[in-house]
Design goal:
Elements: H1 2-24, H2 47-61, E1 70-71, E2 78-79, H3 86-106, H4 123-127
Length: 151
């Protein structure tokens, strides 16, 4: 009887110690999400670089993630791979346009991932913090001699 009691107490202490150790171990954090549906960014781009680029884009346009990315109705979370919003397609076209301008006119060089290292233009060049940049036509200017003949 005394032996059984001692065995139960010892087993209980071992279980308590094991639970205490397990509770103090750091919880394993999930890795970065798997990147899918990349159409303009390199397929091997690290998550942290893509995330930084998205932060730059959102600041340049004065928007948040939900401007281009749709929300999954079942989970309530952003569905980043989804192409449901036309703004995402427009952003891809704008990025490709910017890359062509930089390559043609500013001889932009790319890094080992294929990302442009230095550019002449970027999203902010036109957007200036606005999701839809203002289209402005210059006012008619008259030189020192007044309007041109016939006006």
């Amino acid at each position: 009887m005394h032996f059984k009691k001692r065995l139960i107490v010892t087993t209980g202490l071992i279980v308590i110690i094991a639970i205490s150790i397990a509770a103090t171990l750091p919880q394993q954090q999930p890795g970065p999400p798997k990147l899918v549906n990349l159409k303009v960014f390199p397929k091997n781009i690290p998550y942290r670089i893509l995330d930084h680029e998205m932060d730059v884009w959102s600041a340049s346009l004065g928007v948040r993630c939900n401007f281009c990315h749709a929300r999954n109705e079942q989970t309530g979370k952003m569905d980043f791979p989804s192409d449901a919003k036309p703004e995402k397609t427009a952003a891809r076209h704008m990025y490709l346009m910017m890359a062509k301008i930089n390559k043609k006119f500013f001889e932009a060089k790319k890094d080992t991932l294929g990302m442009v290292m230095a550019t002449g233009v970027n999203c902010y060049t036109c957007h200036r913090g606005n999701s839809h940049p203002e289209i402005k036509v210059p006012e008619e200017q008259h030189g020192p001699g007044g309007p041109p003949p016939g006006k």
